[in-house]
């Protein structure tokens, strides 16, 4: 009996213990699921990024050796084409002028009978070609006299007569050389002036290429501070030939930028400083006065060696009015005629020189970087007529 009681007591204890364990678990709330973690299965090399070269160490000395530094390649510096013979190479660009001179005039002069009507046609052709009234009369009078004295000429001889008269009208005695050599440690200073739309800044960059092609070291001054694009454009032109550009913030005083450019040119020892000025409207008195200020400030370093006036050849006789006003403000020493390959007529070269007494020193015959050519009267007439032009006659 005692054993039975003891067994029943143990059984009761076990039952109570089991109930105590099960009931709390049934009352416990289920726990929220753990957050899911994504595992990046990419290759280890991809996760690490580009390899980083650690400093190497010399085992014998224990000194860290830094890896070599790879420098970015230097910008390519272009070598401009030689200036000698450029006008000859670009003669095909004068095709429109060749139609007036090489075909029109020569066709008239080659007629069997040169009567008054023919001479009037010759005169009209020259005036239409922008030669100018006074220059046209002189050319026609000399041609009439020489054909009368020499008698009826062959087509070849008449071409030679016309070529000689055109060369004389261009006055080959004028000095067309650019003064670009430094003097006593001071670089030559070239001031570039002109009106908006004449291609002034582009031509300034091409002049720099002409100077570099002739062996000069050049520095450019971006004194056209009214247009940020002008300074950027000039800097691009300079970079292509390895030249430095001095510029100021947009709206800065142009005279100050020009002064700093010349001073920088003196410090660096370049041969020539080329200063691009803002496009001037010749009928704006305030702007022309500012151009005079640029000239005076630059001359504190020394005299300006060249002042080049950029003229658009397609403006014809209207360009002469622009040129006259510029000559009253600055001492223009040379003219650069741009866009002579377009709708321009070659006679404008004669008109500019006759009216201003200033030599045409450079002519633009295309959009290419090396399409700016030193002007030579005989080569120019040769290109107009399509024949070897003779030298000037007395």
From TrEMBL:
Q: Quote any Pfam family the record assigns.
A: SRP54_N
Q: Name one GO cellular component term.
A: cytoplasm
Determine if Membrane is one of this entry's keywords. Answer: yes
- Catalytic activity entry: GTP + H2O = GDP + phosphate + H(+)
Q: Which GO terms describe its biological process?
A: SRP-dependent cotranslational protein targeting to membrane
Give the E.C. number(s).
Answer: 3.6.5.4
**Protein's membrane topology:** Peripheral membrane protein
Does this entry carry the keyword Membrane? Answer: yes
Family matches, as InterPro entries: AAA+_ATPase, P-loop_NTPase, Signal_recog_particl_SRP54_hlx, SR_rcpt_FtsY, SRP/SRP_N, SRP54_GTPase_dom, SRP54_N_sf
Cell location: Cell membrane; Cytoplasm
Q: What Gene Ontology terms describe what this protein does at the molecular function level?
A: GTP binding; GTPase activity; signal recognition particle binding
Keywords noted in UniProt: Cell membrane, Cytoplasm, GTP-binding, Hydrolase, Membrane, Nucleotide-binding, Receptor
Predominant place of localization: membrane
**Record region (Disordered):** 30-58
Sites binding GTP sit at 194-201, 276-280, 338-341
Q: Which family does it belong to?
A: Belongs to the GTP-binding SRP family. FtsY subfamily.
This molecule's function is given as: Involved in targeting and insertion of nascent membrane proteins into the cytoplasmic membrane. Acts as a receptor for the complex formed by the signal recognition particle (SRP) and the ribosome-nascent chain (RNC).
Q: How does it assemble?
A: Part of the signal recognition particle protein translocation system, which is composed of SRP and FtsY.
User: Any idea what this protein is called?
Assistant: Signal recognition particle receptor FtsY
Q: Which species does this protein come from?
A: Micromonospora endophytica
Q: By which gene is this protein encoded?
A: ftsY
């Amino acid at each position: 009996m005692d054993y039975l009681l003891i067994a029943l007591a143990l059984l009761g204890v076990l039952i109570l213990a089991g109930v105590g364990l099960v009931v709390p678990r049934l009352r416990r709330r289920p726990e929220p699921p753990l957050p899911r973690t994504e595992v990046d299965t990419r290759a280890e090399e991809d996760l690490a990024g580009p390899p980083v070269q650690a400093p190497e160490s010399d085992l014998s000395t224990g000194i860290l050796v830094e890896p070599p530094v790879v420098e970015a390649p230097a910008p390519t510096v272009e070598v401009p084409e030689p200036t000698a013979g450029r006008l000859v190479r670009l003669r095909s660009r004068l095709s429109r002028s060749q139609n007036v001179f090489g075909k029109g005039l020569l066709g008239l002069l080659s007629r069997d009978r040169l009567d008054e009507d023919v001479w009037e046609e010759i005169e009209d052709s020259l005036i239409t070609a922008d030669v100018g009234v006074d220059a046209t009369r002189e050319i026609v009078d000399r041609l009439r006299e020489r054909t009368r004295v020499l008698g009826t000429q062959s087509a070849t001889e008449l071409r030679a007569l016309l070529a000689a008269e055109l060369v004389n009208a261009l006055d080959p005695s004028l000095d067309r050389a650019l003064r670009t050599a430094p003097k006593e440690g001071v670089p030559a200073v070239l001031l570039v002036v002109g009106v908006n739309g004449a291609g002034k800044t582009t031509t300034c960059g091409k002049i720099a290429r002409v100077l570099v092609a002739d062996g000069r070291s050049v520095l450019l001054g971006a004194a056209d501070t009214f247009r940020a694009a002008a300074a950027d454009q000039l800097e691009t032109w300079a970079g292509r030939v390895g030249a430095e550009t001095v510029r100021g913030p947009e709206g800065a005083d142009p005279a100050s930028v020009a002064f700093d450019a010349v001073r920088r040119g003196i410090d660096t020892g370049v041969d020539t400083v080329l200063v691009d000025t803002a496009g001037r409207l010749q009928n704006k008195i305030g702007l022309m006065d500012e151009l005079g200020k640029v000239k005076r400030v630059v001359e504190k370093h020394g005299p300006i060696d060249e002042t080049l006036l950029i003229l658009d050849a397609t403006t014809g006789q209207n360009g002469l009015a622009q040129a006259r006003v510029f000559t009253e403000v600055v001492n223009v020493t040379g003219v650069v005629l741009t866009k002579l390959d377009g709708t321009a007529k070659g006679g404008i070269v004669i008109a500019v020189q006759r009216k201003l007494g200033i030599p045409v020193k450079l002519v633009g015959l295309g959009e290419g970087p090396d399409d700016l050519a030193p002007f030579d009267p005989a080569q120019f007439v040769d290109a107009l007529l399509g024949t070897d032009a003779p030298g000037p006659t007395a």
